TrEMBL record:
Keywords: DNA damage, DNA recombination, DNA repair
Gene3D superfamilies for this protein: Nucleic acid-binding proteins (2.40.50.140), Recombination protein O, C-terminal domain (1.20.1440.120)
Protein name, per record: DNA repair protein RecO
Pfam families in the cross-refs: RecO_C (PF02565), RecO_N (PF11967)
PANTHER family: DNA REPAIR PROTEIN RECO
InterPro entries: DNA_rep/recomb_RecO_N (IPR022572), NA-bd_OB-fold (IPR012340), RecO (IPR003717), RecO_C (IPR042242)
UniProt keyword Ribosomal protein, yes or no: no
UniProt KW Manganese keyword: no
Residue ranges annotated for the DNA replication/recombination mediator RecO N-terminal domain, each copy included: 1-75
């Protein structure tokens, strides 16, 4: 197995003292996992941040082996992690993607939507500019995985976005995250709490 593709890092977990086992979302191959040697080292630690766009190279000798991954940063989300709202949004949307999508099944519309949503989170002047896009990504994710839509994303005031977000939460929890060990919904609840403060 040899893969080279643009990717969005959606999860990174420490392995041993310096390595990382990471999950990447690619347009052509879907979610792929890889072993990043030195991923917690000085050079790669800023790269191994969920939400970062990377140039990914994966190689494995057999299909049953966890591939070795080499990554080069193409766009960093690091500068926005110092702000509570963007950090919470990036943390939620990457955790949702990593938890909900099966490995090695491509979802090109979701890849484009995630890339656009992350860009909106980082470049919109305030959460009012990206909250609707984040909700739209959640709706699209449910649709792409075969659970139907939960209505269109609202384009109005933040209060409408929050109301739609509250209505969509149970579907995400029940259909996409019910069998997950980690409490991924806690990240969404934290984001919802922060958004509620600006409504």
């Amino acid at each position: 197995m040899h893969v080279r593709a643009p990717a969005i890092l959606v999860a990174a977990r420490q392995h041993g003292e310096t390595a990382v086992v990471a999950r990447f979302f690619t347009e052509e191959f879907g979610i792929v996992a890889g072993y990043v040697a030195g991923g917690r080292g000085r050079n790669l630690r800023p790269v191994m941040i969920p939400g970062n766009l990377v140039d990914l190279q994966l190689s494995a000798r057999s299909a049953s082996q966890l591939p070795f991954a080499r990554v080069e940063l193409t766009e960093s989300r690091g500068p926005w992690l110092a702000e509570p709202l963007p950090a919470a949004a990036i943390g939620w949307i990457t955790a949702l993607t990593a938890s909900a999508l099966p490995e090695r099944e491509p979802y090109p519309p979701l890849f484009s939507a995630l890339e656009g949503t992350l860009s909106a989170i980082c470049h919109a002047p305030s959460a009012r500019g990206w909250a609707s896009a984040l909700l739209g990504y959640e709706v699209l994710l449910l649709r792409e995985l075969g659970y139907g839509g939960a209505g269109e994303r609202p384009q109005g005031e933040m209060a409408q976005v929050l109301e739609a977000m509250d209505a969509l939460g149970p579907a995400l929890d029940h259909y996409l995250l019910a069998d997950r060990r980690a409490d991924v919904m806690a990240a969404r609840n934290r984001l919802r709490e922060l958004l509620g403060r600006i409504a």
